[in-house]
Amino acid sequence: MADIYLRVEAVNIGNVIGDTEDLSTIRGSGLMILDLEARVRSAIQGWRRDIASEPITSGASQTVVRVSLSQTESADALVEHVSESLRCDGLLGFATFVVDHANGDYDDAREALLAKNRWRQLQQSRVSIAGAFPAAEERDAPENAEQQRTPWCPVDMVRPAVRLVDNVRNDEKRFVSDSVAKRRAYGFSEKQAFYRRTAQWTPTAQIIGDRLRAAWHFQQIAEFDRESDGRPAKDYRLLPANLNGKIAIFYVDGNQFGKKQMKLCVNEARQRQWDERVQGEKLAALRSILLQMWDPAIPEQLGPTWWNQSNRDEWRFRFETLLWGGDELMWVVPAWQGWNVANSFFETVRRIQPSEASTSPIRPENLPRRSSPDSGRSPFPTGKSGIRNLDAKPSKAQIEKARREQEALEARAREAEAAAANQPADIGRLSYSAGLVFCHAEAPIQRVWQLTKELADEAKQATPSDGREDDKNRIAYAVLESFDQIGQSMKAARVRHLPFPPVDDRAILQARIRRSVLHADQLAELQLSIPWMRSHFPRGAVYKLLDILRYEDAAGTADSEFSRWYERAVREIQSPDKANMLDDYGHQAVIAKLALSETHRMNWLHLAELWDYVV
Questions:
Q1: 402 lies in which domain range?
Q2: Considering its fold, how many domains does the chain have in total?
Q3: Is 50 exceeded by the pLDDT of residue 334?
Q4: What is the DSSP letter of 499?
Q5: Does residue 102 form part of some domain?
Q6: pTM
């Protein structure tokens, strides 16, 4: 028997997850890839029923399985069988995959598998053509004369429209492609199953019963509930009216997780420990959000603005998971919950992680080595100089002593290696970079999706290369008030909004953009200060101060005007009639954060940009 490692990865997943604007189709595309490990193991069992296989690691779009082959079985044949099984899969066939094998130690095999997967990805198509050429029997017939079949799918705008489905647009039946029909149906059926299976979260019949529903479209996540007279429902009247119809998209990616895995996961046991740690942190963050919606221990405790109850016969929760797995996740929530979700993620992760001080791991370089024939104490007699006398023949006692020493050394090495395999990996604290976009619910989701990833990359660039991991948790955000902004360069737009006079120096501009990135600790700080400032500080003064900061000349002649407006706004905060409105956070701390120094200029930008969005 020979063991091999099989690595399967879904590649170019943006072409299957982000190819439509339909919520259920996007959801189904992301969730179906989470079934990759199960589908791969099923394909392996289909090749030979009694074959031994064991999953080693699984992420958002990849899985590694150890397979035991007999001497007569071909690893290449297994790879081809698994590849064909995925291509013919009724659901996963709409995605593209790379499948490769390697043998040897796990550490070496992992690097070989990554290289093989990347090379294979370059050699094959970026998109799947499954469903592009449907047979006549795969085309549904219209139910009435009003249902006209269009040549192409109105959802993905590419494939032939062959399936008749409900509620695609405007709650009417339409013909869509086979790909959209199946992914969308899977996304709808798995909506609740994902949270039950992943987070063990199930609202009981005490509160919701069978009225729990998935959102059909992003507007059901973003729109305020209304009373019968058209006014916003009671719980929504305290929110800024500007948030109605807006969503927040939150994306998280681990900082240098690939490098850390290469360093720490030197064997299968360490790899599993890493996966458990990363998945555990994401699960804890997910559960913290779900418990804000509804705590099953307190049946009457329901987060009202988390639920769309416009239709009293249905409860649609305003939360979507578009990406889950590995070190990435993407959530869509109402705009009024976006800042809260970002803060909850970082607070939960920081709370459950181990302290910075931890024991040193047992690493391969620290293990006792098995000696070679020429290492250690030689069985050959040596002279006074310590040089071996090769002409002298060792005695039997010397040979036996050397043999015992060699066996003892090898036994210690085996024990140390076994201990290393069972020793918890010294992963320490981990850090994350995030992107957060506030936009209209009807904004093109594909472009906004890309923006969140660009913002997370921007946050990574602002992360210090050394120091404590807690100092590396960063987030960059963007507020898109109009559709026009979505087509612009995000960096160009951010430069125009910065509270500094314009300059042409590229290095200075890049440094200023990095300064606009927030440390995760500032999320809670702004969540306390911005609502207070919104209640006490004149909004017009904020924009006036920003304009002065942006257009002051090199001589600084605008300083006096800035000071005049600043002092006027501060006097407004400190007026006696508002003294009783000050909360525990303290107005002095708020004012101090808005100091005129260079390091605090960005706070004026955050205050203006997030005025309505941090509630």
A1: 372-380+394-426
A2: 2
A3: yes
A4: S
A5: yes
A6: 0.82
